[in-house]
Design brief:
The chain has 355 residues and is α/β, with parallel strands linked by helices. The chain has 12 helices and 12 strands. Strand 11 and strand 12 form a beta hairpin.
């Protein structure tokens, strides 16, 4: 299950985010505020306003602050009722030492470490967070410029971050100016949290809150307890029409081959994939779209997982991945090795959803 966090900076925005269906209301300082965390008084007021209908998280600041001041901010936000408290993690070799001030607090307070995509490409900080007792790790784009997460890291890199969080037993979150087409792609990775700005713009503050945008983002993140939201991705679809989507001539370097000489090197492989997709009606917005990015991103993630002996195995994995979305009725997958010395060789398979 993936939870939707909606970032807000005041009580009015929190009410709109709750009405839009956010699972977690995430408090951030107003744009004009001085650097640092959320005021405990504002946190307490919003916690009281929400009345237990939603989890509240709040930003405490980052580890560049003086350790006693940061620890005091964390304790104050916890006392104000914040269920999760986020802490920014600037890059640096002394991260374990800087985390030491928060380790005693992590026994009773759920801490989420915020990593920045331009600084943490190797994700070694995830292990340090786990060792310090943090509850989760979230990957964001750095302020103040921000920008889209997928402009800074590709899907295979994000898959490594999700896997690192799983290894450390941490709740995994993704953020970074997420746009509506990004959400179906990121849901392929099954993160625990997706942080959605409650307002448009790179950092979510310039244009004011946009309730319609929040509702659309909510609809794109399935909530297993609500049937109509589950149908937005992965739930049963009553088809009015079926469409054929395709990705052709998609070539990647792949570690593939059963011979020992084929290990430790990549081969150029071409993927030609078509899917028959059920659609309930006219295309209005991203809720009604099965994006071709889901095909190419899924292939990238499977290829990045490591060596595969047989093209048949890779084709079966691609078909199974595609049929994991209930909108896909049939998957046709062709995998072609281009550098064998015997011309182009490969396999083409067709797989359908079981009745």
């Amino acid at each position: 299950m993936t939870l939707m966090l909606a970032s807000v900076s005041d009580a009015a925005e929190a009410a709109v985010a709750l009405d839009a269906g956010a699972d977690v209301i995430d408090l951030i300082p107003p744009a004009q505020a001085a650097p640092g965390g959320v005021a405990p008084a504002l946190t307490a007021a919003i916690v009281a306003q929400l009345g237990g209908r939603c989890v509240v998280s709040a930003l405490a600041g980052d580890l560049a602050a003086e350790p006693p001041a940061l620890a005091a901010a964390v304790r104050a936000l916890a006392a104000a009722g914040a269920g999760w408290i986020r802490v920014g993690l600037p890059a640096g070799d002394d991260l374990p030492a800087r985390l030491a001030v928060l380790t005693p607090l992590s026994r009773n307070i759920r801490l989420i470490g915020m990593l920045y995509a331009d600084e943490q490409a190797d994700f070694t900080a995830v292990a340090a967070l786990a060792a310090a007792g943090f509850a989760g790790a979230m990957l964001d784009t750095p302020p103040p410029q921000g920008g889209r997460l997928l402009d800074q890291l590709d899907l295979p890199a994000l898959a490594r971050f999700v896997a690192a969080c799983g290894t450390g037993g941490l709740l995994c979150g993704l953020a970074g100016a997420l746009e509506t087409p990004d959400l179906p792609r990121l849901l392929l990775l099954a993160p625990g949290l997706l942080l959605c700005r409650a307002a448009p713009g790179a950092r979510g503050r310039a244009g004011g809150i946009d309730p319609a945008r929040l509702r659309l983002l909510r609809a794109l993140i399935p909530a297993p307890t609500t049937a109509d939201r589950a149908a937005a991705r992965g739930g049963p679809v009553t088809a009015a029409v079926t469409d054929t989507l395709f990705v052709r001539d998609f070539v990647l370097p792949v570690e593939i081959g059963a011979y020992s000489s084929e290990r430790g090197r990549t081969h150029r492989v071409r993927f030609d994939v078509s899917v028959l997709v059920a659609r309930a009606g006219p295309t209005r917005d991203m809720r009604d779209v099965y994006s071709y990015d889901l095909i190419s991103d899924g292939i990238r993630i499977l290829v990045a997982a490591g060596h595969v002996d047989f093209v048949e195995t890779l084709a079966e994995r691609i078909a199974a991945m595609l049929l994991g979305d209930a909108r896909v009725v049939k998957a046709m997958v062709q995998v072609t090795k281009l550098e064998t010395g015997s011309g182009e060789v490969g396999v083409a398979i067709e797989r359908s959803r079981a009745p």
